[in-house]
Every structure is written in C-alpha cells, then in structure tokens.
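Reviewer 2 asked us to include a model.

Predict the structure of this chain.
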Amino acid sequence: MRKDDCFYLGKIAKKFSFKGEVLIYLDTDEPEMYEDLESVFVEFNKNLVPFFIENSQLHKGDFLKVRFEDVDSEEKADELIGREVYLPLTMLPKLEGNKFYYHEVIGFEIEDKRLGIVGKIVAINDSAAQPLFEVINGDTEILIPMIDQFLVKVDRENKKVIMDLPEGLIEMYL
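Predicted model (structure tokens):
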C-alpha cells in the first residue's frame, strides 16, 4: 500500500499492558468510527506495513486500545511506540456539500465570485492556526485562508472551490 493512497489515522502513543497491547491516539473527530478495524498500516522506514488486529476498544475518548496479531510482548510493543498509523483512503466516509477532505481538493481551481479563476490548489498548509489553500497562478503562489465565510461552494463535478474573497486579498499577490 502506498502512503499516497492512505490517510493518517493517528500514532501509537504507548504500551497498555505487559502482553503487547498498545494505545493508538486517534487524530479524528469521530473515534468511534474506528473501533472495529480489522487491520491498519503502520509506517516503518517510509513503508507501510499491515498489522492485523485481534481486538480493540476505545479508551478514554481519543485512544484505541489494540492487541495486534503477533505482538505479544512488551519488547514487540516497544518497537511500535511513536509510529504513525494509516488507513486506505477508501475507508474515509464520503463528505457532501461544502465539507471536504484536504487531499480531495488538491488540483481543484479556486474561483472568486468577483475575479473569476484565481488559480489551482496545489497544497493545503495546516501548520498555522488558520489552514490555507496554497494556490498557483502562473509563477505566483497565493495563500488563501480557509474560512467558512469565504467558502461559497465546493463544486466536485467541475473541480472548483468557489469563494467570495475580500477585496484586495488576491490583488496583493498579483
């Protein structure tokens, strides 16, 4: 499985028992959706390795207590601590309307109601407090805040994100 075909689910945070159980921190708003997984992919040296789950249950809200097949000791569990956990993109629930996954809109055009096509989304920068669309217009990179009030429509059919941007935001880049 390629990492490009997966989404980040969380990280193996710590051991839970002497028998190899671990706690996975789930980086999601809906941890209960992932309580009955059969398997996950764990990253080792930039490769995703499948791990099959014997049993699992939610623990203190954002954690999933997991017993993996063939992980039956503290030593084996120690090798997993801090590793990132992934699932195939096909396991993401479909979003509709103006809700979207970041990976879903890469390659979409940004269309402003006033200016028309502004450029193409090449990435999402979510390292700051406010996530930003990274948009390319010719040789110019434009950063557009992902603010609900600016978002008019996500047009999946035509691969566009239609926005009503404040006057001057785009002009300061061009």
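The domain at 3-91 is CATH 2.40.30.60 (Elongation Factor Tu (Ef-tu); domain 3). The longest helix spans residues 74-78. We have added this to the supplementary material.
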